[in-house]
Amino acid sequence: MDSELTDAVGGRNTWQQNVSGVAGAAAGGAALGAVVGGPAGAFLGAHYGPILWTAVTGFTGGF
């Protein structure tokens, strides 16, 4: 059990990369949402873009 904890690898990116990634995801989500659904789509894209970015980064071991 203890050896499993010591073998955990994380923290592959910095806070600057995280801020940049979330900002880019929000902007990209808003742009895509605006094309698809106007202002309401832009709002939803700006909201869910960073959530999706966080999930993908977490699942791929970026944190």
Overview of the structural elements:
This protein has 63 residues and is mainly α. The chain has a domain at 26-57. It has 2 helices and no strands. The chain has helices at 2-6, 15-59. The two termini are 22 Å apart. One of its GO terms (biological process) is defense response to bacterium. This is Bacteriocin. InterPro entries: Bacteriocin_IIb_lactacin-rel. It holds the Pfam family Bacteriocin_IIc.
Helical content stands at: over 70%
Mean pLDDT: 85
Distance between the termini: 22 Å
Q: Structural class per helix/strand content?
A: mainly alpha
Biggest sheet character: none
Tally of separate helices: 2
Order of helices and strands: HH
What is the tally of beta strands? Answer: 0
Strand fraction equals: under 5%
**Which spans of ≥5 residues are poorly predicted at pLDDT below 50?**
none
Shape summary? elongated
The Cα radius of gyration reads 16 Å
Please specify the SSE layout and strand pairing.
Elements: H1 2-6, H2 15-59
Summarize it:
The chain is mainly α.
Describe the structure using short key phrases.
mainly alpha, 79% helix, elongated, 63 residues, 0% strand
